[in-house]
Design goal:
Length: about 210
């Protein structure tokens, strides 16, 4: 088990982790959360080398992906950098990557009734005004869970706040900061239910944020 005490805060700069092999040749990964060896709740950075493919598989409790680099593909389409995908519980596919890609992947963490397939090209979707000078791109909402991209302009401070249902962040670009530390691009953060912080940035920063699910 890796980082499966969801009551604990975790912050990992994924650039500091070494790539590990996976059951498939040419597919590498960095493990962030893992309940079981090759099943169940897992959060990872996954790299497909050019030409890599994975066996057809089913996602018993769903699969959520953000394409960080390159082009990810399956029999349903090609997904370039910035694509946000949700493959719902019970869905099946046979993924591959012709040119190679790097993905942020959350496996088997869906509510069983969250059955929508989502595919959003975030590089071609409008930002909406958020609190203060933030810009927000909503990606998914189901019951208490909300997923969005948030763009912070330089020197933006957010109000101190408490995370009801926790908060999970992947820093896509820039550097996210709070009173507990500084989190450069590539950092994954998980803060539990009722955790608090006072975040800010010095440079323009884009984060993937999921709240309400912990
Ligand atoms: Fe999959
Ligand atoms: Fe927060």
């Amino acid at each position: 088990m890796i980082n499966m005490n969801l009551d604990q805060s975790v912050s990992i700069n994924t650039n500091d982790l070494d790539w590990e092999t996976s059951p498939k040749p040419n597919v590498l990964r960095k493990k962030l959360e893992r309940a079981l060896a090759e099943a169940g709740h897992a959060t990872s950075i996954v790299q497909y080398k050019a030409g890599a493919s994975f066996d057809p598989h089913t996602h018993p409790n769903g699969e959520e992906i953000l394409v960080l680099e390159g082009v990810f593909s399956d029999e349903n389409g090609d997904y370039g950098k910035g694509t946000y995908l949700r493959n719902p519980p019970g869905s099946t596919h046979k993924p591959f990557s012709n040119e190679g890609c790097i993905l942020f992947v959350k496996l088997n963490q869906f509510s069983p009734s969250d059955l929508s397939r989502i595919c959003i090209d975030t590089s071609n979707t409008a930002w909406l005004p958020g609190q203060g000078n933030l810009q927000v791109m909503p990606l998914h909402t189901f019951e208490d869970e909300h997923v969005a991209l948030v763009k912070w302009p330089e020197n933006e401070y957010f109000q101190p706040h408490t995370h009801f249902g926790g908060e999970e962040i992947y820093v896509i670009s820039g550097e996210f900061i709070d009173e507990h530390g500084s989190y450069p691009a590539g950092t994954w953060l998980r803060n539990p239910h009722l955790s608090k912080h006072h975040p800010f940035v010095k440079e323009e920063t884009i984060i993937l944020v999921k709240v309400g699910h912990l």
